[in-house]
Every structure is written in structure tokens, then in C-alpha cells.
Amino acid sequence: VDFHDTGRGYRVPSMTDYFGFTMAALNDHGCVFANPCRGEKNTSTLMYRPFSSWANNSE
């Protein structure tokens, strides 16, 4: 995720993609990330990250 308006703070929120997300949606409150099922051992993943949790740029 890259943010256009980076002037609001000195640290830009970031996230390392350990799951190989291929889909995402965002609004004013946070982001939803997802990836599809790739077989029995690699199930689908859905994760919500509120922007408030990125305040310290931590995962």
C-alpha cells in the first residue's frame, strides 16, 4: 500500500505482505486484504488493518 498524501506525518504507514495478497479495498478507516484459495494446504486469507493501528508503523 502506498499513500499519496504523506504530508500528514513524518512516518508513512507500511505493511509487509507475508500472505501474497491479490485483492484489496480501502476506505477512510482501514484496508481489507485477501488472497484466493490455492489448494488444500494454501487456504484463502482475509485480513483487516485499521489505519489507527499503523500509528507507530508497526505490524
Account of the 3D structure:
This protein is mostly beta strands and 59 residues long. It has one domain (1-59). Helices cover 0% and strands 27% of the residues. It has no helices and three strands. It has strands spanning 23-26, 30-35, 45-50. It has a three-stranded antiparallel beta sheet with strand order 1-2-3, with no helix packed on it. It is elongated, with a radius of gyration of 13 Å. The relative contact order is 0.26. The mean pLDDT is 79.
What strand order characterises the main sheet? 1-2-3
Kindly state the mean pLDDT as a whole number? 79
Put simply, the count of helices is 0
Query: Strand count, sense and closure of the main sheet?
Result: 3 strands, antiparallel
> Low-confidence spans: pLDDT under 50, at least 5 residues?
none
Number of structural units classed as domains = 1
Shape: elongated
How large, in whole angstroms, is the Cα Rg? 13 Å
Q: Could you tell me the number of beta strands?
A: 3
- State the order of secondary-structure elements, H for helix, E for strand: EEE
DSSP strand (E) fraction? 25-35%
The percentage helix is under 10%
The structure class reads mainly beta
Secondary-structure blueprint of this entry?
Layout: E1 23-26, E2 30-35, E3 45-50
What's the short version?
This protein is mainly beta and 59 residues long.
